[in-house]
Amino acid sequence: MNLTEKDFAGSKSFTAKDRIVGTYFFYWYDIYTKEHIIDGDGTDALTTHPPTLEDFSYKSVRWHKQQLAIWRRRALTWRSWCFGVRRRNTNQHWLALELCRFEAAGGSARGIAPARQETARIGLFYDTSTLQWNHWGYHTDLTTDFGTRFFFATVRDFFSCIPPRHWAMIEGKPIVLLYASAFAKKWDQGFIDYTKAEFPKQFGGRVPWIAPQDSWGVKGDNTCAWGGALAFRNPGIGEIGPGYDHSAVPGREPLVREREGGKFYEESWLKFLRRPSNFVMIETGMNFTKARTLPSPRSTAESTSS
Predict the structure, then answer these.
(1) Which residues lie across from 79 on neighbouring strands?
(2) Lowest mean pLDDT segment, chosen from 168-172, 232-236, 290-294
(3) What Rg value do the Cα atoms of the chain yield, rounded?
(4) How confident is the model at residue 236 (pLDDT cuts 50, 70, 90)?
(5) What count of Cα atoms within 13 Å lies in the side-chain half-sphere of residue 77?
(6) How far does CA 208 lie from the centroid of its chain?
(7) Do residues 277 and 224 lie in contact, with contact meaning Cβ atoms separated by under 8 Å?
(8) With a threshold of 0.85, does the pTM exceed it?
(9) In angstroms, rounded to a whole number, what is the distance separating the alpha carbons of residues 239 and 282?
């Protein structure tokens, strides 16, 4: 904290016209404690399984390096990793850093150009469930002074842990995406305005670029969504996923969106490319078993019109 412009030497920023693809990097599995791998009744907590459960743990540096290495090999024009912070109560305390790496690269008219290797750019996906479920037992009222400061503290604490040269920024503004509004007790525009006013005081004059989920109904720099793994959405920032199945989660009505061998994911991309915006997020991006080369927006438009 207490940064100056000198601290941003070597950092890069996207422009408002750049095409950006991000992904959420969730990790909360731990093979050693069986956390989220075995349910409380002893049954399997995983609907589908990775190729191996060896060292399958968010506490393992080796595992994280392996996941990032796999993602780097994906044949996407742009790549990203996004961090999010999540705090549970003292009995379920874990810090889920959703790491998103953004890599800008040019796409050819008839295909995808190889991505350049760049320094990791990291933004915040704010898991707003912490506004209700936290180890203080505080249900956050974002219309109060304490509530706005509570919200801001997560944004502040997150970026204080990330070297400025790794920040994902648009026009010099660090990227913050918000999850659902339902976890807040009450809210209004004030918590966004407060965060934008206070953040630059401690971080070298940088004002955050905030995109609330469409459920918030407040003014931000853009609007994001959630649920692209169930159906393509694009309220401003596109949301795409390969499918979804939480049948193994206890206490939930099964919700399934079949992957269809990759067809659902591909069709979601085609919907996006027919009417694209400059920013798209991929849900469950670390769970693909096979990367596929995607057509460029131009070639898609041509094939659609013909």
Answers:
(1) 103
(2) 290-294
(3) 19
(4) very high
(5) 21
(6) 16
(7) no
(8) no
(9) 6
User: Which residues are paired to 213 by β-bridges?
Assistant: 224
- Alpha-carbon separation of residue 162 from 25, 90, 153 (angstroms): 16, 24, 15
- For residue 201, tell me if it sits in a domain: no
Residue positions counted in the chain = 306
Domain containing 294 equals: 13-139+159-184+208-305
Q: What is the pLDDT of residues 88-126, one digit of tens each?
A: 333 333 333 333 322 222 222 223 333 445 555 789 999
User: Would you place residue 303 in the very low, low, confident or very high pLDDT band (cuts 50, 70, 90)?
Assistant: very low
Spatial separation of the C-alpha atoms in residues 239 and 305, rounded to whole Å:
24
Number of domains in the chain: 1
The phi-psi region of residue 15 (left if phi > 0; otherwise alpha if psi is between -120 and 50; otherwise beta) is beta
The answer to whether position 202 is within a domain reads: no
**Is residue 278's pLDDT more than 90?**
yes
Q: Which helix H or strand E contains 269, and what residues bound it?
A: helix 263-274
pLDDT computed for residue 120 by the predictor:
59
**Distance in angstroms (rounded) separating the CA atoms of residues 306 and 289:** 32
If DSSP codes are grouped into helix, strand and coil, which group holds residue 100? Answer: coil
Asked if residue 152 belongs to a domain, the reply is no
